[in-house]
Amino acid sequence: MGLYTKRIAMATSIITTEDLASFKKELLGEIKVLLQEQGKFSSKKYLKSTDVMKMLKISPGTLQNLRVNGTLPYSKIGGLIFYEADKIAAVLEENKVEF
After folding, report:
1. DSSP state for residue 16 in the 8-state scheme
2. HEC profile for 10-33?
3. Of the candidates 52, 65, 61, 59, which has an alpha carbon nearest to the alpha carbon of residue 92?
4. Which of 14, 35, 54, 56 has its Cα between 20 and 30 A from that of 87?
5. CB atoms within 10 A of CB 14
């Protein structure tokens, strides 16, 4: 066997059913984690300001502007501000821009 043939043989590997099963398990695990991360905001009925900022990827100032101008409804109890997850989803849907 020549040097070129040896290099091709070393570069080529055989994928077994065990390899595929392992890949499937790893891929499903990653998908499960992504779905859990996505669902953590929607599973709560009320969200704190930090949750809303993470969900919408906005700054504290932007969130305050959305409160002040009446875009996002909220409830204030003591010093804490809460937002209903359903209301945020409704505001996003109402302001959706479709081309």
Report:
1. P
2. HHCCCCCHHHHHHHHHHHHHHHHH
3. 52
4. 35
5. 5
**Tokens linked to 13:** 């590997």
Do residues 82 and 75 lie in contact, with contact meaning Cβ atoms separated by under 8 Å? Answer: yes
Length of the chain: 99
Written as six digits, the tokens of 24 are 């499937």
Print pLDDT tens along the chain (99 aa): 555 555 555 556 788 898 888 888 888 888 888 777 766 655 678 999 999 999 899 999 999 999 999 999 999 999 999 999 989 988 888 888 887
| Cα pseudo-dihedral 46, 49, 50, 56, rounded to 10 | 90
Specify the pLDDT at position 12: 65
Alpha-carbon distance of 72 to 47, in angstroms, equals 12
Tokens of 88: 């945020």
